[in-house]
Amino acid sequence: MSENTLFIAENPNGKPADASLVVGLGDLVLTPDMPTSAGSKMLAGFKSLFPARVAERLQAAGHHIAGKVNIGEFGFDFLGETSWFGPVTNGSGSLTTAAAQLLAATSVDAVVGLDVNGTEARAAALAGQVHVKPTYGCVSRFGTVAIACSGETVDITARSAETAQRILDALAGHDDADGTSLPESECARVTSDGFDQAATAGEVFAAPVAHVKVARGLADTADDDTKRLLDAALDALRAEGVAVSDTAPATDELLKVASTAWNILMCAELCNNVNRFEGMKYGYQAEKCQSIDELYTRSRTEAFGALTKTAILYGSEVLAADNYDRCYDKALRIRRLVSDAIANELAGSATSGEAAGQTAIILPACAKRSYSCDDVEANPYLVFDENRFTAPAAISGLPAVVAGGVQVIGAPFSDVALLRLGDVLASAVSAGKEA
Amino acid sequence: MTAYETVIGLEVHVELATKSKIFCSCENGSDAEPNTHVCPACCGMPGMLPVANRQVVNLGMTAGMMLNCDINRTTTFDKKSYYYPDLPASYQTTQWFAPVAVNGCVTIDTPNGPKDIRIKQIHMEEDAGKLVHDNLTFTTLVDFNRTSVPLIEIVSQPDLRNADEVEAYLERLRTLLRFAKVSSARMEKGTMRADVNLSVRPAGSDELGVRTEMKNMASIAAIRRAIEYETARHIDAIENGTEELVQETRGWNDDAGQSFSMRTKETAGDYRYFPDPNIMPVVIDDEWYDRIRASLPELPEAKRERYMTEVGLSDYDADMLVQSRAFCDCFEGAVEAGAAPKDAANWIITNCAGVLNKRGMTSDELPVPGNALGQLIALVNDGKLSSANGKRLLETLFDLSETEEGIPDDVAALADAEGLLNSSDTGALEAVVAAVIAADPETAQAYRDGREKALNPLFGACMKELKGKCDTQVLRELLISELMKS
Ligand SMILES: [Zn+2]
User: Fold this and answer.
1) Domain ranges in chain B?
2) What is the average per-residue pLDDT within B22-46?
3) ipTM score above 0.90
4) Residue in chain B lying closest to A317 (CA)
5) What is the C-alpha to C-alpha distance for residues B133 and B138, in angstroms, rounded to an integer?
6) Residues A404 and A233: beta-carbon distance below 8 Å
């Protein structure tokens, strides 16, 4: 363990001369030649017998895997602060993630990980990088350590939208080993080629984003700096001819409760998924146990961090037989309501107005422009509140892109359109900085 | 003295006869060497995602239809969490919210006539592994071959009243499931296991008494003993207050003939069921539903009736055949291939059953297709194959069924290649007969003098020379005519 650990392991095979992009893999992505710790003492040093599908696809596309990137325990915390290998700060002392810091300070081109709870989206927004959480089902989750399967997707962080798209082109595709994987023809829609063909054919998901809607109530829960950044982004979009309006107030209200519902679903699934880490078969095992119950209890008590324990207890509680209907089942209903509300906001505007195109929702990705280690120490459960900006995309499975410090959420398969909009946002922000 | 009534409901676990496990492609074969049919998925390693085996759903639907259930057209898989060393992912994937089949019914025979036992539901789930305790070293080892082996659990309503009804119900389930090829349903092999829920109440009462559940009963005899023991224990507790009855799970120690407390309701786990987000709801459309409905077998009693009235078999032959779906399939195939029904039935009931018995196989394991048996019978009846060599050929068919190539389509060619066919060379036959007569003139003369029994040693000598490969009728006629000539 050392301060600011960026890679927990580096690729022992070295970089081939003809590799196109250099990619780090988040530590929930399994690799047989490097350990996968999931950011947890529980899995420290664990080596998988098989690689994740995304690792295979990256290599098949000629990209080089540089190593395994440090993450927070089980990848669902605020900014990686719960990692067994310690938190990461940037040059000015603010909390960041290892992925964002690798992109800021090294020649790594992109980091591919598992987006459980918006951690890398927040980090990318703070660092001015590009992050994409693709449409659910377009990139195989086979070989990722499952945490909150109903919402998590493989994600990409890069310095530019163009690089993120190149990585997405390599990753997207059907996989029989993932029962939630969409058919190949649908996966192809999030690749440049598939998207351009669909655009030629006039399909709605492949139209450019011509209209953004601001969830004003939710956006206003962010601080003034963040709101100013959002306003600047809106100005830049207007200058490009993109129409700007507000979402319906009812949508806003639903988006605000998305976080509460997502916390229930995420913690319940996490609780169940990490049950398998019980000290028996692999991973951390407590010593000198007298009984199987003691082995389970002590191994888990000694190896899991505080935030994970909170999530396990919370998840266990919302799934208890007496609470299921009023907690878990209600969260499933809210998921449906939120998804429907967003779908309504995004629908029907593809051909309306002067600029034909599709609609996206625009939001901040986090509430402030920088967080200190003290912020998360003072409130270790900050993430369960401040994930309110990323929860709508997690709960609905819709694609979301962070660029220029703000987040856009689009209709299914609008990934490429969002990334192209992200390009506009990113250059607007960098132009603003220079001005 | 109060008369009491025992109220029994059964939860029957049946291992499905699929090639592979329910969520991975490992072979479904739990008797193999420990931990040889395992992969990262069924060992609970991180990174693997479940992919539901369609054949499991086919068999779940088949079982539901055989037991007159309604099929849920959208059926889902759910996670059930608990810790145990035989459960590698610390959760079992089962069906809690929308099981594949509900509201069924099975009719059993009782001394008071037919009785309907209602089925509450049938759900599909994965099995857990097997713990092997070594009492010498005080260690426990885990065999994961059985983890993720597909099961269905058939849950009855509390409609059973005594051990005879329970036995009749289990036998009926076994017959229906075997006929539909859902499972081998063999309690002795562990492919069928029952949990017995039992309570006792004054006869005629509508209220249920305190219920205890005995888990994992593995034989009908043990179930009978357990029902007797538990009934007596409950009555004793009610009448004499020997103990307070509590709702609990009990184990059955068959050697001691006693049940013992395992866990009470208060300490029973909360399994924290929720839908598995990695397995999409299975939607059964009309095409799928109709395909399974069309694949259901004729019921054994319908077959028995048809074999007697339409095919003309005796009730004994019909009874013998309908004890096994494999017998019926072989019989019907042989008749379709041209065999006389009586011949086909005889060959199956006598010869096939004999070989099965000799090899320690059950009637459900008859590996000979009806078409092959039909050809074999035709060869014998046409005088091309002796009866003894017919039996040899049958053994060869059994042997071949275990090989990669299996049983060939052309059985006559096989018999020929094996050198079992009768010689069709009459010149050779005549030469053998002439040689045998020449070699034993006294016996030949005795026959000519009217001692008919003298034919036997001459016939035997010919058969020995021909190695049994001839049509015995032809040989007999030729031998007699040659004897009378000289
Ligand atoms: Zn397996």
Assistant:
1) 4-286, 298-417, 426-485
2) 92
3) yes
4) B272
5) 7
6) yes
- Burial (CB < 10 A; 0-12, 13-18, 19+), residue A104, is middle
Å between A181 CA and nearest CA of chain B: 10
- Spatial separation of the C-alpha atoms in residues B469 and B461, rounded to whole Å: 13
Structure-token match 């089980």, residue found = A74
CB contact (8 A) between residue B49 and residue A142: yes
- B129 CA → ligand 1 middle, Å: 12
Share of residues in chain B with pLDDT > 70 (%): 98
Q: What is the dihedral of CA B282, B287, B288, B294, to 10 degrees?
A: 160
C-alpha dihedral over A177, A181, A182, A184, to 10 degrees?
Answer: -50
CA distance B317 to chain A (A): 49
Over the stretch A193-221, which tens digit does the pLDDT of each residue have?
999 999 999 898 999 999 999 999 999 99
Tell me the whole-structure pTM to 2 decimals.
Answer: 0.88
Q: Which two tokens mark A208?
A: 């450019």
Distance B43 CA to ligand 1 centre (A): 7
Q: Is B105 exposed, middle or buried (0-12, 13-18, 19+ CB in 10 A)?
A: middle
Q: Which of A147, A276, A290, A314 to mutate to test the interface with B (most CBs of B within 10 A)?
A: A276
Mean pLDDT in residue range A223-247 = 95
Is it true that domain B426-485 has CATH number 1.10.10?
yes
Chain A residue with minimum CA distance to B82: A275
What residue spans define the domains of chain A? Answer: 7-264+328-434, 265-327
Quote the CATH superfamily of domain A7-264+328-434: Amidase signature (AS) domain (3.90.1300.10)
Kindly give the residue spans of alpha helices, DSSP state H, lying in B322-440: 325-336, 341-346, 353-358, 370-381, 387-401, 411-417, 426-439
